[in-house]
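Team,

Forwarding the record for the chain on the shared tracking sheet. I've put the sequence and predicted structure together so nobody has to dig through attachments.
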Amino acid sequence: MQDYIEVESYGKVFPKKGANNRMPYAHQKGAMENLNIINASRQYSTMIVLPTGGGKTYTMSMWLLKNALDQKKKILWIAHRQMLLDQAAESFQKFAYSEVIPHIPFFQYRIISGASCHDRMIDIQATDNLLIISKDSAGRDISALDIWLRGEKDIFLVIDEAHHSTAKTYRKVIEYVKAKVQNVKLIGLTATPFRTADDEKGLLAKIYADGLRAGKIVHGDIGITYQIGLKELISRRILSKPIFESYYTEELYGDSLGLDGWERIQRLDVLPEDIAGQMADSAARNKLIVDTYIKKQNQYGQTICFAINKVHAIHLSTLFNKAGIKADYIVSDVKDSVTGVRISREENQRKLAEYRMGKLKVLVNVNILTEGVDLPQTKTVFLARPTVSTILMTQMIGRALRGEAAGGTSAAYIVSFIDNWNEHIAWVNPDSLFDGNNEFTDNPTEHMKHELRMIAISKIEEFASVLDDSVDTAALEKVPFIARIPVGMYAFTYLEENGTDLSYQVMVYDSTRKAYQDMMGALPELFDSFHCEEEYPADELLHKMAIQCRDTFFLGEMIPPYEEKDVMRILKHYAQYETPPRFYLFDDIDRDRLDAAAIAKHIWDEDMGPRAKTEYVNSLWDNEDDNILKLFFGRKLYFWRQLDIELTKLSNPGIYDEENNVEHGTRKIEDLPLYEIGRINPELEKKLRNAAFERSMDRHGNYTCAKCGKKGTNRVYFQVDHIKPLNKGGKSWPINLQILCRQCNGMKGDHCD
């Protein structure tokens, strides 16, 4: 019986003989040279900023092999995803040549996370030289580091994806290590240091305080030792310039998906088998993917297509070949249905060789080409599968970002195929990965297109609902169309407990802008009033906090309305980073040009007949020099439907005045709870609540709890309650409303507001 099995979670790495044949690019050399300068300090905290595709892990591991491990200094590497931990370990192992670690016979590494393939904190040994640990594992059992830190005077602490450093657990780990070790050399790695609000920049500056300017060490602001932007790497031809395109499949998925299914998608990035099967088997969806390539095959060139599953990869490969496009598929594990023989690794390698030689135009795969395979001639990536993982999305689009100087292409097409879902899932928009990434969108036109792509993803559900006869969208259709165009958005990320990095964009309209602004300013006191200090608050608590936000900020009629799920996501972000998300104003978009009502008015004024109207609308839609309408509406069908609604409003001004054919019973409005009043008359509910607060205010501007006398200037601590309950004959009159703090209102027991 075998007593031991080999594991990859820990071990010893011995120097490779010879020299590393991978030469660093100029920007990677520059980063290492600047690190040499700041490393002259006994302790420091700084950041290295290299954009997506810039080789952060390679640069850092090469420098640390020489300047830490070879000098017998320990390294603690922290990241939030298993994949990032594995990538870091692989990089240290791959580039451990004798020329960079000539003074040590080997080094001992250990990978620690909650994954079954990794070690645990209890496994840490004092003899480990390199610890690569997930942030949550470190945060849960941080004292396990004591045996490893004991007696150390100098240590290197690396935070991968350092823009997350302001999260509570990261700060806890950093502060703990600094308290135990005299000289900590803290280095943060990131592609997006400034995808944050101003307040969060302040937090980052407190963590990373040392940088270089003109070759000299400086302190203050956000400490950056080396930074290079996307535009610079593109101008040096190291990276390709990404060109984003989106195509709408007109397919609806998830209408029967239960809560477990949504959770599985959101937390594990795994589509339920039945939905994956529907998507893989959709003839219309697959035809769109193939036809899209055929129409622009000269521009797209050699293309990698990421499929949903093995069946989907086989379907697409077959359709490409039938259309005369030489294609093949590679997957990790497929058994032939007739022979029972599995496709071998050698078979995959043969197909990769054919792709490299140009014999294949399209290579379809299922996740297998996300990393570790060098295919520099790839000019286009087809994203035929959605993902909630920013890491996976980065890896997928990274297959096409190799620039000419690196043996790749000058431009790269990132082509997304977007489906309709009956619930909003935070699918990653590839364009959003470059938002804030060192000013990628460098002119107003590109910036406008970027903003419109961000909006269009969020508007799919709204436009689709207008086409659905089972959904009552009359209230939405009634408002002026221009009011349905967002004025900006809150863009932010947060981490789930399993390490999944989720990105969200919350669209803000004229109707909700002030409410969101007021809520953002009150977030510190809101969390204080609920005594919420957890990094991952329970959903039940978040729901209570969201209700308080509704009662405090989102009163009155708002169309388009705010959504509670958006507020809860903002609360999750704040719980981790203790700063509001950043607000992006859509200031480069000419909203008038998107106004379907204005376009309909022109058609109406010109008295266009059906043929003239069709020609005019087609000319707007098919304008290749200005595709603003395509970017915003996505589908031509959506655009036509909005025009028809606006034309109907012009021809029938009273069309949305409801005919009352029912005589209902009556009930005095003062007999209703405030929430019910809000459903009937949002403005009256707002007026009643405001009046109750105004009456409770003392001459110093403090609100006062009518029961315990607690005072405060912020409404988030208080709730409106009936003095005499409704079920005992009380009325929703101003004179019967009082202000209670939440604690007193909760103890009262008989309240419903």
